[in-house]
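Fold this sequence, please.
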Amino acid sequence: MKLLIRYIFTLQLLMLVLNSHAQNAAARYEIDAKRMGVSPTEKDALPRGKEFVRLDSTYYVGWMFQGLYLHDRSADVSGLQKALPILRKSFYLMEKDYGGLLATIYNDPYTYTVNNLRYADYLNIAGALREVYENLEMPDSAWWVIQRVQTKDFRKDHYSLLYSRMSWLVHRNRFYTKKQFAFLRNSVAENEQLALQLCYDGLGFIDRNKPNNDLWFGDYQSMPDKLSIYHNLSLIHSYLKNYDSSTYYYEQLAANGSVSWNNYGSLKTEMGEFAAATEMYNRDKYKYGGIKYLMEPYYYLPTLQIYAGKTVAAMDIAREAIQYSNSSPGFGWYNIALARSYLYNGQLDSAWLTLDKAAHFKEIHIGTTLTQPQYEFTIGVLKLIWFEKQIAATKFLHPNWWYHPKWLYEVASLQAQQYVHEYLLANQLILNPERSRIIYDLFCGESTVSYDEVFSLMHRFSPRYFSKLMHEYASLDPREKIKPYFKLYEGRLLWTQKKYQQAAATYQSLTSAVVDTAHEKLFMARLYEGLWEQAVRDNDDAKAIQFQQLLFEHYPTIIPFSNLPFSMQVQFSGLSDKITNKVQADIRQCNITSNGNSSIPKAVVQFSKKGSKYAANIDVYNQKGIILFSRKLLFSTADNVGAQIAFSFFGTEIPLEIDAPATPEKTTTP
């Protein structure tokens, strides 16, 4: 009797399984029919995917449609986190049902052709899942996906999921070690060698399979696969300072129409070819076609404009990117670029507000080697520079600040905050295992801070150490166009150590340096600033006038922050009353002198009034009488007006109108 019951139960179970399989087969047949003509990324994919799951939740297709749809529209962490479990479920289900079949896909042309849809689905799912893991900063999980794909022994890497991707993962996470992620090595140098070896392994894989793949896919089939690896080789060789090799691979990519002009532009920047870099970045500004990825040209182009002294153009480029990105990936980086542009234009209030916006934005680093630690460090460096400039601005507006309790307190308060910020930044720097490459080694293509900003770190942390380091770089670095920058740094660092004669000799040696006058105005400005400082110390008035004029000609916006007295004729005309007289008094107390020399710049301020509003028309002329800047400012009280006008003498953009009274020259600090 028991045997009969067991037999009946087994028979029922078997019938249930067979019926379930039949139902599943029917459901899957229906799903396969309905999916035809519908892309997993189009608007109908999400409801269609949910329908497929209702028909058969054990079939990967419904989960794939939903996962790929969400992945395609994910531009922040929450979107990626929604896509992740669905993509992962789809990946598991496909491996479970079709893993064996996929491993045989290259057995013969018939098997490949008949099962090509499954093959394409698998690659799409694996690629999307890998990308989500990467963008959520889970590289070990991304590596696991690649390893699963490798177990299938595909003969061709159609979606670049294998060696080029592994190489990229290692390169992007090179500053971590095996302790954090098992697939890495134990130092930056070892990781870069691993990334390089993975590229060469990938080229070997392509060559080994080329004869068979040529028969199936044509003679040119291997080139796209190689170009994917060439892309990584160009980046890695650039990082390793193998510039000839990096250039070779970029030229190979360009010849085959696959070059990233953005990355090539970074190499050109690193080599000091700023005109070529600007042209290449501009070529890639609009290539991305969407807002999901960081558009790196929009971050780096403003910096090149700053080098060229075009701070207004730098601001315009950054604003364009901010408007286009609409708080999507890259928004934080573009705000950093805008804040940097404000700093070099002299707009300190706007710079701080923009840096604060970037600091509170949750940036996600998609499609780039730029990382969150770099993001935070760059904001920190720019804030350090902001403190330096704000202190210098207070001293410029109030040269006798140490006699006035209000301004003495202002400077002391700023310095105290600066020291706290400097301590935090020093800890970040110490914990950075690649600081000698991407920070101290000026113009590194992987760096996110400019060469001029790095000086603020060096002269505050250890000028003696860094002046020696810059001397070594100037002697050993292979980049001839960058060597003058190391020498300039050496001179500036010697000056901070009060080694004035050595610094002056270094500056003099640079006066014959060959530079691109259109794209290296900031370099020339820092050199003239150093020579002007030396002339002031030597009481050589003629040379002081000469070099301040050269600085005014090349980069006037940095003059108010130089802590040096600038010679300029300032003339006032028009309406004279209590308000305008107060504005004039505020301007006269700035660190601007008039020595009666007619061959110095001249600023003319004309006041007028209409109704309750005052107007100041400002014209600034160079020593030859050619007008350089024209500004107009509307105001109702004298508060902060003198400061705005004084900075406008040096090319700083000022608001058209100051509406509400404000504490004079007071900026909100952290």
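The mean pLDDT is 91. The CA atoms of residues 205 and 310 lie 48 Å apart.
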